[in-house]
């Protein structure tokens, strides 16, 4: 649909616009750079962007990938697709008090598709999609930058003209190889930013298409304006930042389509100038289109608000300490300091870190802090650019600077803490979209320097050197994102004061069995943040396993004192108290854990062990039954029930429980073994033998499996097979309890039989 508001100027307008394109100042004129046809320029950008991040394709699931992908039930086929629209990014219900409130159902849907096509959690497919997305976005940036730097002009056939082929290629290359993008590309969770950016750019390009018939805005396509709004909504369903494209489209419409001079407009409004109608707000349909964009944006936000609920996400002081400061002055100063650090990461992306919270950036609490210089420098530069963008007599310069600042600032607003508290100090992923504005400003600065420079080729070589360094930095940073060990260790030199960095290094070491090294990092995490309850809990667990029970108890008691609803710490404290034979305290700790986490199968399992130690068999069985109800695949709880019933002579009940367990977990060899023991005692030798053999096939090196099968054969009278399995058991474990005695009894019996036979 085309909205025709004024047709008087339609004849020969496109030819006039084409002539205007030749006379308008051209950034490419003084720039010494590669001039390639559009197709080849896009191929080069795609290739280089691929080279930057190609080595991340076979990386592991790292950091937040575990929660967003591996532990996210929304990816599994058994979860209804409709649940994605009521859950947050991490798979929690949006209505839950613990929800992060990050609503990105389309991103989660792509994860689910990845999971289904791969047939499981295989990271290669996830990484490949991220790399493809970044390459696609980088290619689109050639078109976007050609509009931002060269303006929006169409040929008389309606084809958009690229009036800045050299500078748009340079800007797209700067974007493609920027190292700050590594987190988005190499970290699978960064797909939210990539998908958001993709639809963000498509919305912008779609909005530009609305003026293909008439660039001045007299005629515009309502269809493409609405498509732009829909694409903006899709971008927001990938990540919250996507909604900002509607504001940028409005800015673009005013500055490029309507050539609005903001300073002139303000002056006329202040003077109540009667010539205000010449600005063309109504004549060119700008006001109508902006109203359409804002109405669309408001509707999208309202729908999201209704789905999300009114409650804000619950963040803690360690996530964003500045937002918890009592003083408005301290909050304002630190927010601005964070902005300056984000700007520095765009200018010099050398010090990159997966997490900037927990003391990584100490708060500025007074004006005597030397770091104030950074935010002064930031605002000095911003004010200078804003003044040039508003006051310059060169309309070309005004347009580029305003658009550059718009793309730099507007997409960053959701992460600025201005409208709501965010759950981070600095997050490199949120700079993905604002880096578009940085690339515009950098390229424009390069063109100005080229205009003044006598030796333009030296300047071009310097910029080429920056690109090469950035490619190398991207490759290095991508390799660090390939595994958690490399990622976490890379952060130690960047943020040595970050307790979470030390915690993650320690956790990674503990997972690999290196407890001694893990203890060192956990202790450092607790030293840096004396209220870091998760570090205390993990350290207490390791000390418990090393039988250093007193210190473990102190740490876990402190953790639950700091955070009384920390269910895991209560359970671990109960395990320690049980080991110290303080049974009443242990029981109380277990029930406190269950009080704070109603569905806690592991806690019921440990409570059952406590009751078994106290010979409270009925209570133990009930606790283990609760564990299996909450978690049907809880093998240890099933096993303990079978063994307890077996030991107390309840063979029929033990057999029934064993069969129930194997129906739920048919491939668990430990359950086969336990049930085989019960069946053997019930003289169901054939069935018992079959289960023993199946368990041995699944775990051939378990000495007890061979030993108990030998006992079965011994009872059954199959002495040769009994002798064979006794010998295998003793070979696997010469100290196996009871096996040697049973073997000696069998040998004596065989000798007696031989004597009788002779």
Automatic annotation (TrEMBL):
Q: Which GO terms describe its biological process?
A: endoplasmic reticulum unfolded protein response
Which top-level group of life is the source organism from?
Eukaryota
Keyword tags: Endoplasmic reticulum, Membrane, Repeat, TPR repeat, Transferase, Transmembrane, Transmembrane helix
Transmembrane residues, as ranges?
Answer: 39-57, 131-151, 163-182, 188-208, 220-237, 243-266, 286-305, 372-391, 403-424, 430-449, 458-476
The DUF1736 domain covers 311-383
The answer to whether UniProt assigns keyword Transmembrane helix to this entry is yes
Q: What is this protein called?
A: dolichyl-phosphate-mannose--protein mannosyltransferase
Q: Which organism is it from?
A: Eudyptes chrysocome (Western rockhopper penguin)
Taxonomic classification? Eukaryota, Metazoa, Chordata, Craniata, Vertebrata
Q: Which gene encodes it?
A: TMTC4
